[in-house]
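Structure in, sequence out. Go:
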């Protein structure tokens, strides 16, 4: 199964780093869903919960106060 590498960082350092099957997060214009091989994208993130579905099927939740999403090829 394909995965994508996810890094959640703050000014203080790394909050999360790992492989995931899916990421859902609160974009400025609505909820965004990111799957492996997603087209490159830069978007603002609103405050809310980021749901990271891990490669093994478990989920991690990270609260963010806002920021920038960058999807790279």
């Amino acid at each position: 199964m394909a995965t994508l590498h996810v890094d959640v960082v703050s000014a203080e350092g790394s909050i999360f780093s790992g492989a995931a099957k899916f990421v859902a997060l609160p974009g400025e214009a609505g909820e965004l869903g990111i799957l492996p091989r997603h087209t490159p994208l830069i978007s603002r993130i609103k405050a809310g919960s980021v749901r990271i579905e891990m490669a093994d099927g478990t989920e991690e939740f990270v609260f963010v106060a806002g920021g920038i999403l960058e999807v790279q090829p």
